[in-house]
């Protein structure tokens, strides 16, 4: 599992870009995690799958609601990552109206999730390899905080916990 002080892995995530150009959306864009996080302070939170009620209502929308409140603490961007493709993540982002507040990043093959060491095997339940639930603060590509949730729990990686770690003492 990735540790505090370590750099993010040199892999790509995929984001569905809604920018209309000549009547067509651009579609999925492959982004280098290291390049995208360089020079920024980013909150990244991982979710096992898209469109589940608790994940959508409690976690993603929590970050959408708190995006402006977190910004003064030095956060440049917020990403949510799921082992889903960019099309699914884009649809989920549209459904939750995350545009301009929280970026939906697809990790369809679990490359990022595995490189972090934060995968879980849900094959016995028909879901394959998925991400554990986690939240981290990354500064210039280096992990500064990391909270990993035990499977089936919702206690440590919501927006209020990240916000508390960012408040000056």
UniProtKB/TrEMBL annotation:
<protein>
    <recommendedName>
        <fullName>Glutathione-dependent peroxiredoxin</fullName>
        <ecNumber>1.11.1.27</ecNumber>
    </recommendedName>
</protein>
<dbReference type="Pfam" id="PF08534">
    <property type="entry name" value="Redoxin"/>
</dbReference>
<dbReference type="InterPro" id="IPR036249">
    <property type="entry name" value="Thioredoxin-like_sf"/>
</dbReference>
<dbReference type="InterPro" id="IPR037944">
    <property type="entry name" value="PRX5-like"/>
</dbReference>
<comment type="function">
    <text>Thiol-specific peroxidase that catalyzes the reduction of hydrogen peroxide and organic hydroperoxides to water and alcohols, respectively. Plays a role in cell protection against oxidative stress by detoxifying peroxides.</text>
</comment>
<dbReference type="InterPro" id="IPR013766">
    <property type="entry name" value="Thioredoxin_domain"/>
</dbReference>
<comment type="similarity">
    <text>Belongs to the peroxiredoxin family. Prx5 subfamily.</text>
</comment>
<feature type="domain" description="Thioredoxin">
    <location>
        <begin position="2"/>
        <end position="168"/>
    </location>
</feature>
<keyword id="KW-0676">Redox-active center</keyword>
<dbReference type="InterPro" id="IPR013740">
    <property type="entry name" value="Redoxin"/>
</dbReference>
<keyword id="KW-0575">Peroxidase</keyword>
<keyword id="KW-0049">Antioxidant</keyword>
<keyword id="KW-0560">Oxidoreductase</keyword>
